Amino acid sequence: MTLLDQLKEYTVIVEDTGDINLIKKHFPRDATTNPSLLFAAAQLPAYQHLVEDAVHNSDTDICDPNGKMSPCIEKLAVNFAKEILSIIPGRVSVEVDAGLSFNTQDTIRTAERIISLFEKEKVDRSRILIKIASTWEGIKAAEQLEKKGIHCNLTLLFSFVQAIACAEANVTLISPFVGRILDWYKAKRGVNTIPANEDPGVLSVTQIYNYYKKFGYKTEIMGASFRNLGEIVELAGCDLLTISPHLLDELGSKQEKLIRKLDPDKAMNIEQEKIHLDEKSFRWMLNEDAMATEKLAEGIRRFNEDLIKLAGFIRNRYCDK
Q1: Phi, psi dihedral angles at 235 (to 5 degrees)
Q2: What is the pLDDT of residue 37?
Q3: What is the domain extent for residue 309?
């Protein structure tokens, strides 16, 4: 059996791409998108019909320089997600505008609007995960959305404190960004590599996994943003792993023995006290984690930049100069 075949015995595989043809190739259970992936996919000729549909069937005039592009981009995200859902059996994640990461009420309104677009397309909300940045405001928005039956994927998660707050908010799923944590520590230590079993991103997800399983939290953990195969192998047994197409190909080409590293039974023996958070303690603990503070802010900026690029791409293509 390949590494990929063995991994599927312990872990749900999610594909991290907006390229529908690659999803057809790998056939994961779930898929996830983000503004960066949508921007890349929207430029491919194969998906121009999805872009054109969003341009012509969203409640906005994209050529009005003072008009909002968010209705068009939300419709585009729904179009891509609907195509993906026609292929996979599970769920797809769709991201809320990163510019709303510090606004609870606008995040809720946007998530509800996205869900209504799916329901107009006869897509059941149970197959959608709304991706929201793991800020305090985002977590509080997710908490309210979950009570309304809108399931959430808390993204840009870099720290134990973010994970605890998400679990206490009863969110459906979190996405710890393994590779971006590794990037920060490599730069901080001035090294080119860190062994997979010492990888700070791997250690972070392992800590979260053990904590969740020990205390019976139902929030799912989906490791994300991998830089190499070793990180994935070290997290065999995690609830879900969202993996890029090229790493899926690599996993599918190797015939090595895979050992399960994360196990709920073993987690029960970990010594750990339960932690409860309020806003003050959350903000302080996040502030004390320089890596998480920096990577969260950087991630929000990057997703927002890609939304701006996507809006510019659509306007340049479909508006007369």
Answers
A1: -110, 20
A2: 82
A3: 3-318
